[in-house]
Write a structure and sequence with these properties.
Largest sheet: none
Order of helices and strands: HHHHH
CATH topology: 434 Repressor (Amino-terminal Domain)
Number of helices: 5
Length: 68
């Protein structure tokens, strides 16, 4: 499993654990629903600033999201 796939799986699991829909998460993050879908399907990687916002919203570390 590559790093992008690990991130995608960890992101989706953390979002679901936080009981957020993709739409709710996209709104909080300030991105489109399409961006969330692409992140969760390993089609797109977030910028560092978005990655840190993701971690803050989901109350996890960036290391957790990155599978470290």
């Amino acid at each position: 499993m590559n790093n992008a796939t690990k991130f995608a799986q960890n992101l989706k699991a953390a979002r679901i654990k936080s009981q957020l829909t993709q739409n709710e998460f996209a709104e909080r993050l300030g991105v489109s629903n399409s961006d969330i879908e692409q992140y969760e399907n390993a089609l797109k990687q977030p910028s560092f600033s978005i990655l840190t916002k993701i971690a803050d919203i989901l109350c996890v570390t960036t290391d957790c999201l990155l599978g470290r």
